[in-house]
Automatic annotation (TrEMBL):
SUPFAM superfamilies: Carbon-nitrogen hydrolase
Organism from which the protein derives: Rhizopogon vinicolor AM-OR11-026
PROSITE patterns noted in UniProt: CN_HYDROLASE, UPF0012
InterPro entries documented for this protein: C-N_Hydrolase, C-N_Hydrolase_sf, Nit1/2_C-N_Hydrolase, UPF0012_CS
Gene3D superfamilies given in the database record: Carbon-nitrogen hydrolase
GO BP of this protein: asparagine metabolic process; glutamine metabolic process; oxaloacetate metabolic process
Ranges of residues in domain CN hydrolase: 46-329
Keyword list, A-Z: Hydrolase
GO CC terms, sorted: mitochondrion
GO terms assigned for molecular function: omega-amidase activity
Source organism superkingdom: Eukaryota
Protein name: Carbon-nitrogen hydrolase
Length: 358
């Protein structure tokens, strides 16, 4: 389903920018080490909707306007019913380029989990737009990621924010793992030997996130009335601990805004999502930008939702489009009952990585 420009007009945020069978286990069963769902909401079915936006250009105001319109369109585009959760991709408000992140970075303001955040007092136009879109659409909105500048330290982060259907900011996740890789002859996310002076010349192959971004230091999730949902961003998926911690903390689903490329996408995009879903018996999803071969960065696309058995429930192609997946607790329960690994882990043999996050 290719997108078209929605007729809704954004509010005046006015950006101004200079059937698996059960079996008996041969290992000891440790009921005490099952995930801690005590405080998590009861898992109920919901619709997860991914908005695969076309790549952003240099005009931040236009990027925000388009994202706003697509969120409202996504909230109306599923068989006449409204999805409960809508997701935007990584870096939706700026070009995906290490040297551009500081230029587009916004000060969100001090956010403390569990405490009310005054969105209107924030200096961030992106935060105001996302809050407004969530409220207007009446959905939980996982707002992709934006470059964020910490007002106190001046450090820049890749940050995902989440909003309730009332527009309240309810969660914030800073990308923990920064993408510095070098696949010879393919793609380089690493320092070029001649340094930043030639950054513009080497931009097509040179993008080391750690050159301008700082990694976050927390794992994060948020609760809705129907599920607990964990968060990560793109490269975080290559580190299984993040999803493992989310599952141990009672998350039913985990969502990562992401932007894989034409080298890493074919190699690992689907593989990693299915692996994390099966490893942790959770629903797993990544939302990508659409592919634009005229842009500096060529995103893989293929936004996807995977169930706890590792089955791909929905997958976009590379174009701008909106895709929906029904998240069914019965699948979650069936996977965990038939293959009860959540009760069979041997923390007398190896460590529980989630302990440090309690």
């Amino acid at each position: 389903m290719a997108s078209s420009v929605a007729s809704s007009v954004a509010p005046n945020f006015s950006p101004d920018f200079d059937d698996v069978a059960a079996f008996d286990s041969v290992a000891p069963v440790f009921d005490s080490v099952a995930p801690a769902f005590d405080s998590a909401p009861a898992f109920d079915s919901f619709t997860l909707t991914l908005v695969q936006l076309c790549p952003t250009g240099s005009d931040k105001a236009a990027n925000l306007q388009h994202a706003y319109e697509m969120v409202l369109k996504a909230a109306k585009s599923y068989s006449g019913t409204k999805p409960q959760v809508v997701v935007l991709p990584e870096c939706f408000n700026s070009p995906y380029s290490f040297d551009q992140f500081p230029l587009y970075a916004e000060n969100i303001g001090p956010y403390t989990p569990g405490k009310e955040f005054d969105v209107q007092a924030s200096a961030s136009d992106s935060i105001k737009m996302l809050s407004s879109a969530a409220k207007k659409a009446g959905v939980w909105l996982i707002g992709g990621s934006i470059p964020e500048r910490d007002e106190e330290t001046n450090k820049v982060y890749s940050t995902c924010t989440v909003y309730s259907p009332t527009g309240a900011l309810v969660a914030l996740h800073r990308k923990v793992h920064l993408c510095d890789i070098d696949i010879p002859g393919k793609i380089m996310f690493k320092v070029h030997p001649f340094g930043l002076a030639l950054a513009a010349f080497w931009r097509s192959s040179y993008l080391q996130e750690s050159e301008t971004l700082t990694g976050g230091s927390t794992t994060n999730y948020f609760d809705t009335e129907f599920a607990r949902i964990g968060l990560g961003i793109c490269y975080d998926i290559r580190f299984p601990e993040i999803a493992m911690i989310a599952a141990r903390q009672g998350c039913h689903a985990v969502v990562y805004p992401a932007a894989y490329n034409l080298t890493t996408g074919p190699l690992h995009w689907e593989l990693l999502q299915r692996a994390r879903a099966v490893d942790n018996q959770i629903f797993f999803s990544m939302c990508s930008p659409a592919r634009d071969m005229t842009a500096e960065y060529h995103a893989w696309g293929h936004s996807m939702v995977v169930d706890p058995y590792g089955k791909v429930l929905v997958e976009a192609d590379e174009s701008e489009m909106i895709v929906h997946a029904n998240i069914d607790p019965k699948t979650f329960d069936s996977a965990r009952a038939g293959i009860p690994i959540t009760k069979q882990r041997r923390f007398d043999v190896y460590a529980d990585v989630s302990e440090a996050c309690k």
